[in-house]
Amino acid sequence: MLTRQQSCVERPVALQHGSNTGRKLSYIAVRAGKRALVVRASVTVPTIPTPGADEVLSCPDIRPRLVARPSPFVAHNNFGGGFVSDMDRVALTAMRFGSPKSAGAAQFFAAPELEGGNGDGQHINWMEASLEQLTTPLPPWAVRAGARETIFHDPRHTTAAIVTCGGLCPGLNDVVAGLVNKLTDYGVPEGNILGIRYGFKGFYDKEHKPQVLTKRSVDGIQLQGGTILGTSRGGANIKEIVKRVDMWGVDMLFVVGGNGGNAGANAIQQVRCSSSSSSSSSSTASGRVQMCEENDVLCNVIGVPKSIDNDILLIDKCFGFDTAVEEAQRALLAAKVEASSARCGIGLVKLMGRQSGFIAVQASMASGVVDAVLIPEVHFQLTGEQGLFKYLQSVLEAKGHCVVCVAEGAGQDLLENDSLHNGTDASGNPILADIGTFLKKELKGAFKEADIKYIDPSYIIRSIPTTSNDRIYCKILAHNAVHAAFAGYTGITVGLVNTHYVYLPIPVIIQAARKVDPRGKMWNRLRASIGQPNFY
C-alpha cells in the first residue's frame, strides 16, 4: 500500500461519457520508486446538458453576407491560448437558491412572472426581474467572448472606426489603445483605423475630422485620464452617421459609451429580427440582422459599455468603477480627518450616482469611516424618531464627530420644489437638484454648533488614470470587442458576467439602469458593517 511519505502521480486513463447526471473518470495512482503499485479509482463528475437554442441569449450577426476565412492567429494557436467555440456558454445566474429564506434569495422568489420568462424567477437576474422597465426576459446562458478560429473579414482590407461617447470615465484611453493594438495584431493596416472626435457629432462635424490611430499614436495614452478622441453627450444624427460609415467604407464601428452610447450604437445598427414572435425574439434577441437597412450598409457595430456609476444591466462591473471607488475613498478619508479634528465635526461627501448608489456603497464599505450612507434606491427622511438627524445626534454624542456619504441621485423626493429639479440634459437624463448643498443647509439648521465640511469630488474621480486592475480589465474588454467584430457579430456589447467575458445583445442591457438592491447582500452587508438603521 502507499504510505504518506511515498509520492504518487495521478494520471487519467479512461473517460466514459454518461448521462446528463455525470460522467465516470478513472485514474491510476503510480508510486514513485523501484516498485510500482497501481491503484485504480473511479469518480463521477457531474455534467451539464448542452443548452438548447432557446436557452441562450444569442447574438445577431451578419455572417451570411461575409466571407469566412481562418484567423491569422491560427498559426500560433492564438499566442498559445487557443480559441473560443461558438458553442461555449456562460451562466447568467451563478447561484440557484434552495429556499426563499436563503440570504439574498428573496428577490429571486419574489420576481414577477414575465412573458416568455421562467415564472419562478430562478433564471431571471434579480435586477431585471424587479424592474418595471424590463421588456426582455433572460434565458440562463450567454455566448462566451473571445477569439474564434474562423473570422469574417480580411484584415488587410478592413477599415475600423472608434468613438467615445458620454461623460468621462477612467479607462477610456485604455480601451482606445486596446482596440487599436488588437486591430493591428489582426493585420489591419496603419491608416485604416479612424478615431472619431468628440462623440457621435464627430461623424458629421466639419470642424473636427477623424484622426488616424496607430500603435505609435496610442502608445502610453493609458497613463493619462480622459480620452484623446474627446467626447460629448447626445447629438446622434443616425442618418448622418450611417452616411459617413458608408462613405468612409467603415467595416467595424466600436462605440465606447454608457446606456446612451449603446442606444446610439443600437440605432445605427437598426436590428431587425427575422422572427415575428415577440416572446421568442425578445428572449433571445435572435435572428439575422440588416445593418442600416435603408442604405444597405454592411458594418459590424460593437459596443464597449462605460458607466462610472456601474449601472449597466447584467455586467459584474463597468471599467473605471474600481478606480472611481478608490478615488472616492480618498474623499471620505479626508472628510473623516476634517470631522474628527473639529468639535462636533460633520463630514459630508457627495459622490456620483445618478440612479444607482454603487460608488457610495463600495467606497463607504472600503473606507470604514462612514456613519451614514444615502443612495437613490433607498428612501430616507431627515426628521422624526427614525430620521437621519436623530441617528446622527446619537453618533455625535458617542464619538464627537460623524461622516455622511450621499449619492447625487439620493433624496430627490425631498427637493421636488427646487427650481432646478426639472428638465433633462443632452443625454436625456433628468437634471438632478443638488442634494449635497441641500443636506449641508439642513444639517447646519439641525446642528447649530456643528462644524460641517462639505466635499464634492465628482469630476476628480472620473478624470484620473486607471488603477492596475481596471487597466487590465479595459484591455481585455477591448480585445474581446475586436474578436467579436472579426467573428461577424454585430449589435452586441462585451462585458464580464459571473467572472467570465460574454457577448450581450445591446437591447438587453439598455432596457433600464442596474441598481443596488435594498434587500441584497451588498447593501445589508454595508449596513451591518457601520450599524446604519433605516431612516424611515
**Which fold name is given in CATH as the topology of the largest domain?**
Rossmann fold
Helix content: 25-40%
Content-based structural category: alpha/beta
Q: Ends: how far apart?
A: 68 Å
User: What CATH architecture label of the largest domain applies?
Assistant: 3-Layer(aba) Sandwich
**Whole-number radius of gyration?**
26 Å
What does the main sheet amount to?
A: 10 strands, mixed
Number of helices: 14
Average residue pLDDT:
83
Describe this structure in words.
It is a single chain. The chain is of the alpha/beta class and 536 residues long. It folds into three domains: 8-45, no CATH class; 57-318 and 466-509, Rossmann fold; 323-464, 3-Layer(aba) Sandwich (Rossmann fold). Helix content is 27%, strand content 18%. The chain is built from 14 helices and 19 strands. It has helices at 106-109, 126-129, 172-186, 238-247, 259-269, 278-284, 321-340, 358-367, 388-399, 435-446, 458-462, 468-486, 506-509, 521-530; strands spanning 8-16, 23-31, 38-45, 56-57, 69-70, 89-91, 141-144, 150-151, 160-164, 193-196, 211-212, 252-257, 300-305, 345-351, 372-374, 401-407, 451-455, 492-497, 500-505. The strands form four sheets. Strands 4, 6, 7, 9, 10, 11, 12, 13, 18 and 19 form a ten-stranded mixed beta sheet that branches. β1 (8-16) and β2 form a beta hairpin. α8 (358-367) packs parallel to α14 (521-530). The radius of gyration is 26 Å and the shape is globular. The protein starts with 7 loop residues before the first strand and ends in a 6-residue tail after the last helix. Mean pLDDT is 83; it is low at 1-21, 106-132 and 271-293.
